[in-house]
Amino acid sequence: MTKLNRTATQDRPQSVTHALKSGDGRYAFGRSIYLVVRGRSALWEYQFRQDGRLRTMSLGSAVARSPLEQPVTITEARAKREAAWIARRNGEAVPTGARGVRFSAAATDYLKNHAAEWSPKQSKDHKRRIELYTAPLSAKPVNRITVEDVAAVLRPIWTGPSHGRGSKLRGILEKIFAANEVEPNPASWSRLQHKLSTKSQHTVSYPAVPSADLPGLMADLEKDDSTITRAILFATLTATRQMETLGARWCEIDFKHNAWIVPALRTKKRIEHAVPLTAKMIACLGPRGADDEYIFPSRRGGHLSHASTGPVLAEYKRFDTDGNAITLHGMRSTFGVWAHAQKTFDKITIDRCLAHSLSKVDEAYYRGKKITPEYLESDTFKLRRELMEAWCEFATTLCS
Fold first, then answer.
1. CA 113 to chain centre
2. pTM, whole model, 2 decimals?
3. Measured distance CA(91)–CA(72) in Å, rounded
4. What is the pLDDT of residues 128-182, one digit of tens each?
5. Which fold, 211-395?
6. CA distance 396 to 237
7. CATH 2.30.29.30 fits 9-89, yes or no
8. Domain residues of the chain, as ranges?
9. In what order do the strands lie in the sheet with 53-61?
10. May I ask the CATH architecture of the domain 103-192?
């Protein structure tokens, strides 16, 4: 067989091994399937005409580019070609175009370019998920990755479209493909919903201290004036998420209105969240620092670690009704159960204090709104302040 240049097509080789030994080139394997060999890479392609233009679709790599990647055999390439042919016949779009950037490079660029939009913990979590679960995609060009490729990566960790690691990974994958203008997007839910379960698995709640046991725990915590204990007390009394409390800076505290404005960047819903501060909450803050300083700093600089609160709470040996050691996040559940049991405060007020999702009408009104002095003086915020005052009074009943 005569070796041709990169753009020429050679006759059908005897095998993939034969093609690789023959060197760089484009080898025909029949039924519009080609093996493109360049250096140590060998990609299967399906070539066809669409909209009057010659198109190519990647069918996968014929050689493993990583220990976790399985090479695509000619039999598997033919099966993918048949599936694509049927999809095209039924009017469905298939991913085509130039090779594009490899997924590993695209993911790295996306995480770097958008790091400012996330907290350090969120950035670390996104990077970790991609490293742990997307190895089979790493060597593939982004616009040659199929819906089935993405589904295969998600299935081992999939627990539902709005639940768990699989859902979070799907979301970031969709954004990576969108950033590289891959259309149709192989990670969009509209395409994956036919390949993955649409039913979310049961969500296990964080272990929470029973409300009747909370005053005793708070009294014990108050005896320790360490930074981390003050952070636990503050998070409990404000019913905020751990990442919101530990990352708090002094510039976020509005002493004029006795309110804490949590920046959108550090909230789960990416919306500014105002927390009415009571005297007992303010007592947890400690000495006033510079505006850009963390309220709960670590000894090594920065703020306290998210892993630091668990061991401290464990020392107090408090458990939920199932005998599980309580968590700081579970304090939000304790607050919610207590607040609803009072029969005094409406559900919307309670949900606003927890920064939970609201009704569609309420959500549309508040989404994207900046917290203004007018809002902090409104009747709506006064209702929230009444609730938090009552909660603090209950939680610190046994405190000095």
1. 16
2. 0.57
3. 26
4. 999 989 988 988 888 778 888 899 999 888 888 877 788 899 999 999 998 887 7
5. hpI Integrase; Chain A (1.10.443)
6. 9
7. no
8. 9-89, 103-192, 211-395
9. 9-10, 25-28, 33-38, 41-50, 53-61
10. Orthogonal Bundle (1.10)
